Amino acid sequence: MGTERQGNAEGSPGFHVVLGNEACDLDSMVSALAYAYFLSKTLDSGKVPLPVLNIPRQEFPLRTDNAFLLRESGLSQDDLVFRDEVDLGSLHRAGRLDLTLVDHNVLPSSDCDLEEAVLEVIDHHLLERKPSPSCPVTVETVGSCTTLVAERIIQKAPEVLDQQVAQLLYGTIVLDCVNMAPEAGKVTPKDSQYAGLLETHFPNLPPRGVLFQSLQNAKFDVSGLTTEQMLLKDMKVASEGDLKLAVSVIYMTLEAFLQRQSLQQELCEFCHKHSYNLVVAMTISFNDNKEPFRQLAVYSSSTLYRGEMSQALEQARRPSLSLSPMSSPYSDIRAYLQGNTLASRKKVLPIIKDFLRDRERREVHCGTLEESYEVPQQRAYTEDAGIEEDSYFPPTPMNSLVEGCPLDNGLPKISAEALTEKFSKMASEEENAGGL
């Protein structure tokens, strides 16, 4: 670690922030919490390890599975630190920030100024970070990033593991890997290995099937949510040039989503509020045999944008989504049945990314868009771990596409002392509860 990263302004405390991705799904949250606590027990750098959840606090209630597992593990939301409560840029400029990325390996463009603070990466997505001798990178395409965090803890400091942290890690692995069912195509041997180790060493963990179903029920509970909240619940943002779009996972059938009153108007208002040109809504539900059922919708008030995006998805080959048009009650929404049920958002995002890049290249070279869209030759996105191109990846975000999440910049930032107190309080509560 360089001297620049070690320095603190006038002796003020520095922070080693562990930051998950902007979706702040269960995997990102638990990876940040567990790894920050591991660092607090093993790191001696003079900086305070601090997990930061990469969303505004006001959005956390939408992560119903996160809230459920926290509650079941005896942790309080009040002691968590959210992205709108800490100014990472100011900490970095003051020489008081080290940064570990978990569950993503590339910072979004809105955070590019923080790049020099990144000391380590632990992730299970496609590796897009450029190699650097000053930043060790652990990337494996396992089903859950928490599997890699569990591996690190067990190999380096197994005494950190106890019932509470084990339940956090175990619940997340089980949910991400669909109850460890091979037919779902998400679990890898390493996920099974560390889930099994946790079960063996902590026999009082909740039964796997019961825990999975409880988390799944919490995750799919969208009762009472507005259309905007449903879109924000599990959303990633992709942009290139003048085109910015939201890619949201919706936890209901597309038929039910399309039946929402004034949906097209609500989508129009959502795009206007957040400056999006397009929305791609990927719905997921389960049939009577517990098999995933996927559908997809493309919304834009622009006929050009809607047509281009739809054509790119229809003609995609790596992978093919096997889209079949469905009836839509709205002129600005194209609806599809997705025959390839293994193609989660993780598979669709590279298609969108290639579309955006190709479109931007054509604009730069031609000065205007052509009438028709030619599907680019998409890159093969195999990993060094030997995963085949068409293997199934978990539906977690490809974070290089994210341009940031809406933050309430008017909220006051928490002081360094308050941040330290928050994490110390959480750590104390966990230890008193026999956890972490």
UniProtKB/TrEMBL annotation:
UniProt key word Transport: no
This protein's record includes keyword Signal: no
Keywords from the UniProt entry: Hydrolase, Manganese, Metal-binding
DHHA2 domain span: 212-356
Signal sequence segment: none
One example GO MF annotation: exopolyphosphatase activity
Gene Ontology CC terms: cytoplasm
Needed co-factor(s): Mn(2+)
InterPro entries to which the protein is assigned, alphabetical: DDH_dom, DHH_sf, DHHA2, DHHA2_dom_sf
Protein family: Belongs to the PPase class C family. Prune subfamily.
Protein name: Prune exopolyphosphatase
Annotated source species: Oncorhynchus tshawytscha (Chinook salmon)
